Amino acid sequence: xxxxxxxxxxxxxxxxxxxxxxxxxxxxxxxxxxxxxxxxxxxxxxxxxxxxxxxxxxxxxxxxxxxxxxxxxxxxxxxxxxxxxxxxxxxxxxxxxxxxxxxxxxxxxxxxxxxxxxxxxxxxxxxxxxxxxxxxxxxxxxxxxxxxxxxxxxxxxxxxxxxxxxxxxxxxxxxxxxxxxxxxxxxxxxxxxxxxxxxxxxxxxxxxxxxxxxxxxxxxxxxxxxxxxxxxxxxxxxxxxxxxxxxxxxxxxxxxxxxxxxxxxxxxxxxxxxxxxxxxxxxxxxxxxxxxxxxxxxxxxxxxxxxxxxxxxxxxxxxxxxxxxxxxxxxxxxxxxxxxxxxxxxxxxxxxxxxxxxxxxxxxxxxxxxxxxxxxxxxxxxxxxxxxxxxxxxxxxxxxxxxxxxxxxxxxxxxxxxxxxxxxxxxxxxxxxxxxxxxxxxxxxxxxxxxxxxxxxxxxxxxxxxxxxxxxxxxxxxxxxxxxxxxxxxxxxxxxxxxxxxxxxxxxxxxxxxxxxxxxxxxxxxxxxxxxxxxxxxxxxxxxxxxxxxxxxxxxxxxxxxxxxxxxxxxxxxxxx
Length: 577
Hints:
Blueprint: E1 4-13, E2 22-29, E3 32-37, E4 44-49, E5 54-57, E6 59-61, E7 84-89, H1 104-114, H2 119-125, H3 133-142, E8 148-151, E9 153-154, H4 155-163, H5 165-170, H6 176-192, E10 196-201, H7 226-239, E11 243-248, H8 253-267, E12 271-276, H9 284-298, E13 303-307, E14 314-316, H10 328-333, H11 338-345, H12 351-356, E15 370-373, H13 387-394, H14 398-408, E16 414-417, H15 424-431, E17 436-438, H16 455-466, H17 472-486, E18 503-506, E19 512-513, E20 517-519, E21 528-530, E22 533-534, E23 536-541, E24 544-548, E25 551-552
Parallel strand pairs: 1-4, 1-5, 6-7, 7-8, 9-10, 10-11, 11-12, 12-13, 13-17
Antiparallel strand pairs: 1-2, 2-3, 5-18, 14-16, 15-16, 18-23, 19-22, 20-21, 23-24, 24-25
Helix pairs in contact: 4-6, 6-7, 7-8, 13-14
């Protein structure tokens, strides 16, 4: 009988611990790494040739929204195509449990704007065989997966469950009894397997209120009181387990930073702050955040940043676009039915307010937005023009130039914009801090205009191979070991004997990101934008090959990692396609 189910033979091992790379074979048995070194081929049932390849731990993505998509897409693509083997769901405080049956429609409607997930896909693809958070995790556990799933406990559904929707969205201060009940639900959810809790706190009145409910109002966590967050931090302190993920932009950075540090101090647990994004025209913003992170570290407070290190651009239409919500006039003009939005965007009386405040938080310069998909003979002349160029040709303000095209095309014009983080010198300032995580992929969200799940491949190509800012050893620690540690996945993120065999085998010199494309593969007849990778010889999850030569093998060895740990071990021969 063979000693190993699989042996990865002849690769260059970069093990995620920052140990210098070395050539070795890796033996796998029952989903675990059981030997590293020289292993003769006859000892293995199956040999995977890795000559000329890098062999490294699978990537761990702490920021995704696959809470719905996992039910219809076992691969949680596009993440799996780029070497990610473990994803954390339930980010930003958003999720689908606890949710009473009569509140399901409203919960899905919220996600259509705040995370831009198509309603038709959620309706067609989610089983809704749960009410409580433990029941939701049981449903995820039953679902076939080609990805490991780690769950945050999202706070928004808890607020709604206890306070009621109206009071939660109005920001009413909970009573002592209500705080007790919310903490009971949080404890119950953590008992079931949550790795911590999450909350987005970006009130619409703040400078970055760009992720709102479907009707343009605040999400419950946006108006949650600091006192409530402190009560949740105390839960983690009593458990001495878990961590927190939060985004906080209230307009008072010093107060926000003091509160987040307080949460980490009270809980004694790590806190991941989202998001650190260099702004080409405002570098002081990310520099001040980095200074704060360093002050926290000097005081022994475990606050980590999550950096937006990808420069994946945005392809969008005004049928779906929601990331101008930072500006109240734009927010109000882009909510409502299709007919209502078309009327508002075409209303001359609204144009002065839209011209007065041009969105800048998410996109690069407004004038540089390109017209990539005009839809009518009237607008075809502007194909591949920038909004600024159209404005020059027509003598209009750039806002009017853009919106006149949008109205003529009945909201269907396709635009493209690069994000506001194009300066390499500023990106390097983020990369140079070893405790800023890579990512913010938002996998499963904003599917019609964002493909940031490509970030691991982009890191290896741009940051390591092209710029030489990091060694492969450092990059794999940042992509795998550090996020795994924060997520409580203490046995993942590195290649060592006894660890689950979550492994990527790739062609470093020829790794590439393929062009964006549109895929009509969502439930309910919906579509999304995707970007595939080239150069991944193998991706293994729990010892099973899920990607071979960049193609899915359609087997499902992924696990729900309750508290970051597998509850059972996968035997490769027992995993059915």
